[in-house]
Design brief:
By secondary structure, the chain is mainly α. It has one domain. It contains 6 helices and no strands. The chain is globular and about 50 Å long.
């Protein structure tokens, strides 16, 4: 049942994003920022953990999950360092994901030889 919940929740998130891309004039970058901010807000409200328990990877893998990770890092850093944690927490929590995206993106570019649109 865990796999089924992850599949339909992740698919629903992707379908809603696809509808946003098709029916609005929002650019993909803005939709991505919207998803990260929505994940951070849902995490701040305390709703993300129950959502994650139900949906598993369907909630953790999309950009909503990245917003959750950033907010968790900020909460922990603020608890440890106070005000300065607002600036440190998000960077520290999101560093692994950003580094992995850069490294794997570079490796993929070596394998597939991307070309510029022209």
């Amino acid at each position: 049942m865990d796999y089924l919940n992850a599949f339909w929740v992740g698919g629903l998130i992707c379908a809603l994003v696809q509808i946003l891309m098709e029916k609005t004039k929002l650019m993909p970058g803005r939709i991505m920022v919207l998803l990260v901010c929505a994940g951070a807000v849902i995490s701040f409200l305390g709703w993300y953990e129950p959502f994650m328990e139900y949906a598993g990877a369907g909630a953790g893998v999309p950009l909503l999950g990245y917003g959750n990770i950033l907010m968790k890092g900020v909460k922990e850093a603020v608890a440890e360092d106070g005000f300065i944690g607002l600036f440190r927490g998000g960077f520290q929590a999101g560093a692994v994901g950003c580094c992995a995206a850069l490294v794997f993106g570079y490796l993929a570019s070596l394998v597939f030889r991307p070309k510029m649109k022209g």
